[in-house]
Amino acid sequence: MILRTVDWHTGGEPTRIVVDGWPLLTGRTLLDKRRECQERHDSLRRGLMLEPRGHAGMYGALLVEADHPDADLAVLFLHNEGYSTMCGHAVIALARWAVQSGRVKVVEPETTVRLQCPCGLVTARVSVSGGRAGAVRFESVPAFVLARDRLAPTRRFGPVAVDVAYGGAFYAILAAETVGLDLRRSAMRDVVDAGEEIARTAAGAIDVRHPDEPDLGFLYGTILTDGGDGLDRPSLNVCIFAGRQVDRSPTGSGVTARMALAWRRDAARAAREHRFESCTGAVFSGRVLAAAASVGPHAACTVEVGGTAHPMAEAAFRFDADDPLASGFALRD
């Protein structure tokens, strides 16, 4: 078997886009296809994401047939542990790739790309000049705050207060200083250790449910912030997800979740453009566009996130039947 991919990065965070070779998925809906991948083809996900073809920080996007009538493309998101419900950095990469590759009709100065994601339809707008794609803005599904100041009973730090917000995925969000960390000075290992423990204990202590879709109801990761709001200068944050995976980008769905928190605190200030910085120095913008229809009992808003992505490589990955490591492996520290 040969899987053909194109590799992009968004602020240093990779997106390995699978364009050909994946077995046909027969599920009726995108979430059905997601479950089908988990149950029947997970060895391919592991083989592409993990070593020797990938690495501990690899991320992927599998193009599949859309079932949403308005979608230009449909995608399943892959990482080292499984399948995400939403990924902003990958949406940015996919939207620019769709324009560059001619998968959508190109319109200048801006081309709209509608992506069906497991969380719902995401609309991206790609700036285009002279036929070349540039920066991307996307509007995700309605974002909301699930819980404020809930305690995660960690072993290392004691009870830690976190906010839980949804931006296509659920995140536990807190300032790093509340657990004795400085994102610009602390060792990344210490940040990762804290994020993993907080996510694990918060998931056990907080009932994380999506009102409309059970498959979306789980805590995806932890976002540790510098405590800033991103108005006067970019607010640094680090997202730890899938166990110990670190997002090299500012995390598009995380920016959406942070903007939902900002909106709940002060709608007027949230309407202004905020900027968010990652561990690589990459910056995403975020702003609240408008209030949205409530999601179950939760007041919701629509958020626009902006960033850019860059192409890196094209590849054809072999999966030989007699290769004992065809399904990949992971070395854990």
Tell me about this structure.
With 333 residues, this protein is α+β, with helices and mostly antiparallel strands. Helices cover 20% and strands 41% of the residues. It has helices spanning 30-40, 42-49, 88-100, 188-205, 252-265, 267-270; strands spanning 2-10, 13-20, 60-64, 73-78, 83-84, 110-117, 120-129, 132-139, 143-154, 158-166, 170-175, 219-225, 235-241, 245-246, 274-277, 283-295, 298-307, 310-318. The protein has an eight-stranded mixed beta barrel with strand order 9-10-11-12-13-15-16-17. Strand 7 and strand 8 form a beta hairpin. The relative contact order is 0.17. The mean pLDDT is 95.
Q: State the secondary-structure class.
A: alpha+beta
Order of helices and strands: EEHHEEEHEEEEEEHEEEHHEEEE
CA distance, first residue to last residue: 31 Å
How would a textbook summarize the main sheet? 8 strands, mixed, barrel
Provide the β-strand percentage band.
35-45%
Low-pLDDT residue intervals, each spanning 5 or more residues: none
Structural descriptors:
single chain, 333 residues, alpha+beta, 6 helices, 20% helix
How would you summarize the topology of this molecule?
Blueprint: E1 2-10, E2 13-20, H1 30-40, H2 42-49, E3 60-64, E4 73-78, E5 83-84, H3 88-100, E6 110-117, E7 120-129, E8 132-139, E9 143-154, E10 158-166, E11 170-175, H4 188-205, E12 219-225, E13 235-241, E14 245-246, H5 252-265, H6 267-270, E15 274-277, E16 283-295, E17 298-307, E18 310-318
Parallel strand pairs: 2-3, 4-6, 11-12, 13-15
Antiparallel strand pairs: 1-2, 1-18, 3-4, 4-5, 6-7, 7-8, 8-17, 9-10, 9-17, 10-11, 12-13, 13-14, 15-16, 16-17
